[in-house]
Design brief:
The chain is α+β, with helices and mostly antiparallel strands. It contains 7 helices and 4 strands. Strands 1-2-4-3 form a 4-stranded mixed beta sheet, sandwiched between helices.
């Protein structure tokens, strides 16, 4: 298995063992089952190269309707959470600049994810703590369609936080780390 294949396998494990098993995203299981998630590893640590890779993934989504969502995984860069937040901000600006606002949405996942105002050791952070820094590109039309079929979707974040806190930081960390 190549390095990138291993990174993708670990990411898939995290999606299955954490995101789906903990029901953090009630829509993820369908996409995994239908094999409509594209995984792309970006090895560069150069910010411009990484943003260009992000735009390429938008273009890939434009050209392939069979892909519902993309995970752009940064295998070497953005270990520092603040550097990663800068990447997220630039990716969101890139959506606007390239005419993708309202077409695609970015979700953020990072091994050291920490919600604004939360303590670093709050187990709730594990709802967004992934095995690698990554940007998750989603089709807005798919999100809107899924939300119309899911009652009380606005309660998902609070339910996830309550679940993670009930399980505790040790459990959540072990669960995430078992994917590596």
């Amino acid at each position: 298995m190549t390095g990138n294949e291993q990174i993708i396998a670990q990411t898939k494990s995290w999606i299955t063992e954490v995101v789906i098993a903990c029901n953090f995203c009630p829509f993820a299981a369908k996409e995994v089952k239908q094999n409509t998630i594209h995984y792309q590893v970006e090895e560069s640590t150069v910010l411009k190269v990484c943003i260009d890779a992000f735009v390429r993934e938008c273009i890939k989504l434009d050209s392939d309707e069979k892909i519902e969502t993309t995970l752009l995984i940064f295998s070497n860069g953005f270990a520092d959470f603040n550097d990663y937040l800068n990447l997220v901000a630039l990716a969101e600006k890139s959506l606007k600049r390239n005419g993708y606002e309202g077409v695609y949405q970015v979700a953020s996942f990072h091994p050291l994810y920490c919600f604004a105002g939360a303590e670093n050791d709050d187990a709730a952070n594990y709802t967004n703590r992934s095995v690698y820094p990554m940007l998750h590109l989603l089709r807005e039309v798919t999100i809107e369609a899924a939300l119309t079929k899911y009652t009380n979707h606005e309660e998902i974040p609070q339910r996830n936080i309550a679940f993670a806190r009930e399980k505790g930081i040790t459990y959540m960390k072990l669960l995430r780390d078992s994917c590596l």
